[in-house]
Amino acid sequence: MKLTIKKHKDITRFIRKASFISIVIGMIFVLVASNEITHHQFARTSQPLNVCSPTVSSPCIDTSREITPKPFIPNPELNSKQRFLSAISQKLPTIPQAGTYEYTLLRAYGAVFVNQDIGIKLPPKDIFANEQETQDFQATLTMGHVDGTNDCYLQKSAADALNKARVQQHIPLKSGYGSGDCTRTFNTNLRFWQKYANNQVLAKVQQGKETKILGLVAPPGTSQHLWGLAIDLRVGSKEQRKALNQNGWFQTVENDVPHWTYVGLTEDNLPLFGFNKQVVRGITYWITPL
Questions:
Q1: Res. 54: pLDDT tops 90
Q2: Which distant-in-sequence residues (6+ apart) come within 8 Å of 205 by Cβ?
Q3: Pick the residue with more confidence: 253 or 176?
Q4: To 5 degrees, how large is the angle CA 86–CA 272–CA 118?
Q5: What is the pLDDT at residue 27?
Q6: What whole-number distance in Å separates Cα of residue 88 and Cα of residue 263?
Q7: Could you state, in order of their start, the residue ranges of all structural domains in the chain?
Q8: How many CB atoms within 10 Å of residue 182?
Q9: Are 214 and 253 in contact (CB under 8 A)?
Q10: What is the average pLDDT across 264-285?
């Protein structure tokens, strides 16, 4: 009888253990299955930002890579004026109408608008109305220091290119040291204008009756110096000019001998963008075709 009771107890104990093990295995199975479902749902609902599901109303945009704009290349089958206008239309929101004051300014100072350097910022128009408008634009620029000067600053890409040229050759600033040769304020531009011209001359320029003055001084609010893309230099040798040209700097304002513009192109590409080569008293200018 005692043996029978012992066997019964052993069987009961075995059943309990088996039941416990079964319950544990079942719980493990449930947890694993639950985790797999949750992971699957997370994978479906928490996709990376660069994965998109295109729909008719919401186009698919891959944000995983920064898009670098390709340099614009004019159609060589167009004439020079058309090539130039097609290039600046990529940068200038509105092209001024021919015969207007703004168009006259574009003809004289618009060379910068073909610049393909992604590191620079171009103004939205070719004339600023006042000091505040000029300051608002200049506050958005990334500036770089011109090596060996006190306080000469240009847009960084322009300054970097100029510094490379000045490593190749000794190229002094026109004044020899300072900010007046580099990026200027609206008031500085106005002061230079008043030094060489007056309101009567400005009225004639605005009417299209006077343009020669533009090779001496820029009307208020129109100077390339306001954009951080021009500098006045003392250049007298072919070696200096070659170093500047190799780094994207050219003379683009006819008769303004010390004035250099950061165009950011190679000399070989200037004709492709519509520029006309003009030699005046031994100095090569690259003039807009307007």
A1: no
A2: 101, 104, 211, 213, 214, 219
A3: 253
A4: 65
A5: 59
A6: 12
A7: 1-67, 80-287
A8: 24
A9: yes
A10: 97
